[in-house]
């Protein structure tokens, strides 16, 4: 049985009539950029994030860039972020003229390692960007404590974690600014590019609004240099159709993840690490390590990411899955501190062993909401068969 890594056909066709209706509404309105639909969507996302303000943006990347610009980060500044993340987290830092400083990641939850983060603070550090990777919160209590101690701003890159919680708090609402992405593969996916910035700080929200439109305030007057980071009315309107279903999408992702963990966890050679062991090296001998969720967190499972340990074993599993037509992806194969574009800004001898190990070992399996029971069975059987043959 073929199992794609992600298939949005069923999700979108279930809403086809409503999607077509709002498309017609926007078509007839003649208003295609910002406007009422965007404002209504901003209010709805602010409610999801539990923040006072939300500013729609053209992508998750642009929301991050806007956040950094609104905080006045630029040349001479350093911003600490994980190396084990999507490129945009660090790319945006460089685009402001500031320097991304890479920190190591926890091998259990894949999020930024607190003590490594703290060790990288210098007199130039201005901000921290924790990333809530794969749907689970970074250790925000520690990040906020370190941030406060050193007078640093905190931007939560919540691109993969809309609606997820850290204890009682919604992700995006804990730091100074949070950012979301509505790239089609994210839990709330648009029909193109879209993003959002959220904050409780009225002045930051206002500055982000002005910067998103070339810094024009009022029209044709530019005290700031911004850009075109505006959200389309059509994306906002279509996303508003999907938003009421986000909780249901998430509960299906959780069901899929729970089933994987319960059934894969019984296979010989598979280990579920104790999340209390965060920061320590996970599972010493196991061939496959399952993803763990910290108590108090509730992952929204943007990805279900296992670690396949041992020389050549991940490649062998990939060949096995590929031959069976089972989708997978490696998020992420190359650490950001090894990327050519960051070479001049990164110490040559920088070693982030846990991040580097994660890049060698991770493998993300299909976990999208509409994944059927037989498809999930096929994924589990494929992995069981691979481990048996070894
Ligand atoms: C997807 C993603 C982004 C960028 O979002 P886009 O909407 O694709 O620009 C930023 N950070 C992380 C961690 C992401 O996963």
Explain the overall architecture.
The protein is an alpha/beta fold and 390 residues long. The protein is built from 13 helices and 14 strands. The protein has helices spanning 9-13, 16-29, 36-49, 60-70, 88-95, 114-119, 140-150, 202-211, 233-242, 246-264, 313-324, 353-361, 373-389, and strands at residues 53-57, 78-82, 99-103, 125-128, 153-157, 165-166, 169-170, 177-181, 195-199, 270-271, 288-289, 297-298, 304-308, 362-365. It has a seven-stranded mixed β-sheet with strand order 1-9-8-5-4-2-3, sandwiched between helices. Strands 10-11-13-14 form a four-stranded mixed β-sheet. Strands 7-6-12 form a three-stranded antiparallel β-sheet, with no helix packed on it. Strand 2, helix 5 and strand 3 (99-103) form a beta-alpha-beta unit. The mean pLDDT is 96. The structure holds pyridoxal-5'-phosphate. Pyridoxal-5'-phosphate binds next to helix 4 and helix 5.
């Amino acid at each position: 049985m073929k199992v794609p890594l992600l298939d949005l056909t069923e999700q979108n066709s279930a809403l086809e009539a409503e999607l077509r209706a709002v498309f017609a509404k926007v078509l007839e309105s003649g208003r295609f950029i910002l406007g009422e639909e965007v404002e209504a969507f901003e209010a709805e996302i602010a409610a999801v994030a539990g923040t006072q303000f939300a500013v729609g943006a053209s992508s998750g990347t642009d929301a991050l860039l806007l956040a950094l610009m609104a905080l006045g980060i630029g040349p001479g500044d350093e911003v600490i972020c994980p190396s084990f993340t999507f490129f945009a987290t660090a790319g945006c830092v460089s685009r402001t003229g500031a320097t991304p400083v890479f920190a190591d990641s926890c091998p259990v939850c894949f999020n930024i390692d607190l003590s490594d983060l703290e060790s990288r603070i210098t007199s130039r550090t201005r901000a921290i960007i924790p990333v809530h990777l794969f749907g689970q919160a970074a250790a925000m209590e520690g990040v906020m404590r370190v941030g406060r101690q050193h007078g640093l701003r905190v931007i939560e890159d919540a691109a993969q974690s809309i609606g997820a919680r850290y204890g009682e708090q919604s992700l995006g609402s804990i730091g100074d600014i949070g950012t979301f992405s509505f790239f089609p593969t994210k839990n709330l996916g648009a029909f193109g590019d879209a993003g959002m910035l959220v904050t409780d700080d009225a002045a930051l929200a206002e500055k982000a609004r002005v910067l998103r439109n070339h810094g024009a305030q009022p029209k044709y007057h530019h005290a700031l240099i911004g850009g075109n980071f505006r959200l389309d009315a059509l994306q906002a309107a279509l996303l508003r159709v999907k938003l009421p279903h986000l909780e249901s999408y998430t509960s299906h992702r959780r069901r899929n993840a729970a089933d994987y963990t319960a059934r894969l966890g019984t296979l010989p050679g598979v280990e579920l690490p104790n999340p209390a062991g965060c920061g320590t090296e996970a599972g010493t001998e196991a061939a496959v390590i399952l993803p763990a969720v910290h108590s108090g967190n509730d992952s929204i499972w943007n990805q279900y990411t296992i670690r396949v340990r041992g020389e050549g074993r991940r490649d062998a599993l990939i060949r096995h899955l590929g031959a069976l037509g089972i989708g997978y992806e490696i998020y992420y194969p190359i650490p950001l501190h090894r990327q050519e574009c960051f070479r001049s800004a990164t110490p040559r001898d920088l070693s982030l062993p846990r991040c580097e190990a994660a890049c060698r070992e991770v493998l993300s399996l299909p976990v999208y909401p509409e994944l059927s029971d037989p498809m999930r069975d096929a994924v589990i059987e494929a992995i069981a068969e691979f481990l048996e043959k070894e």
